[in-house]
What does this fold into?
Amino acid sequence: MVETIRWADDRIFILDQRLLPHEIRYIECLDYLTVADTIKNLAIRGAPAIGIAAAMAVALASKQQNTTYFEGFYRNIKKVMDVMISTRPTAVNIQWAMNRIDNLILNNSNRPVDEIKSLIVEEALQILQEDIKVNKTIGEFGSQLIKDGYSIITHCNAGSLATGGYGTATAVIYTAHSQGKKIKVFADETRPVLQGARLTSWELMQNGIDVTLITDNAAGWLMKKGLINIAIVGTDRTVRNGDVANKIGTYSLAVLCHRHGIPFYVAAPTSSIDFSIEKGDDIPIEQRDDAEVTTIQGQRIAPMGIKVMNPAFDVTPAELITGIITEKGIFKPSEITRLITQK
Ligand code: MRU
It folds into this structure.
């Protein structure tokens, strides 16, 4: 599987996903601000991947601090964390990763700053490795839902590219495939940024999965024709009551599944679950640039002066979700608070 992000020689290498599927090129990040830009401009995207990128950015910034005084060091790193948190608001993984590093620093505040810097680097690399492990476990649990011959629909890219590796929704697909089950995947193209067309279809093809690209508009009709057995999507933030924020269009897909009696599952690492928020209405939804809607690959397709709304995410209410696949098992949305004690 192609590597999404790598730490080497105190630099961060980020696969530029804007160029996929045409070109594999890495952006070499020498400072945290470059990483923040890659997150904002979607060179790297997907909730777990941007959490990992933010953690590595903080590690890089820590290494570059000259001060040996804890107070000054901590103040500077808090500023870096605030910059990373401000890059994209919906995915909770950045906040989650920042909290982890913040706790680590505070728990080691009596140690020399140089030691704290090394601990931060280790923590960032650990976050990456844990994510891959978590995805594989999600794959093992989720693959129990997949029968031989199943057709799976997915939305956006909850794949290897969106994580440290292996993906969340795609982990279920990869694991079922490795178990010898004959499966087909339908990938929604996912307007406006086309993560399904550019990323998921490419990633699945690279890994030998039988994948068919469809327009977002085709999903309902395929369901009506009996061509879909199950839907599996990722999440940017799942909250206490089981409501799920994910790429815009996920809600529509869930409504369609409900209409056609098709099970709708969300693959959610616990790093994407935010127990501090009660319900989906309180999840911040990122609004992105109008140009994502009015142009396709730089070519204008809409009249000049047209009004545009471009929410990047929507919220699927818990009642439309059959189950949430985590690394701790599969839960009904109403049961995910059971994870609080296990977290
Ligand atoms: O805007 P994006 O491409 O970052 O949106 C990504 C998604 O919505 C994914 O489904 C989600 O982050 C889960 S990735 C495992």
Residues 45-48, 91, 156, 158, 162-163, 168, 195, 234-236, 246-247, 312 surround MRU (CB under 6 Å). The chain has two domains: 5-136, 140-342. The chain has a mean pLDDT of 97.
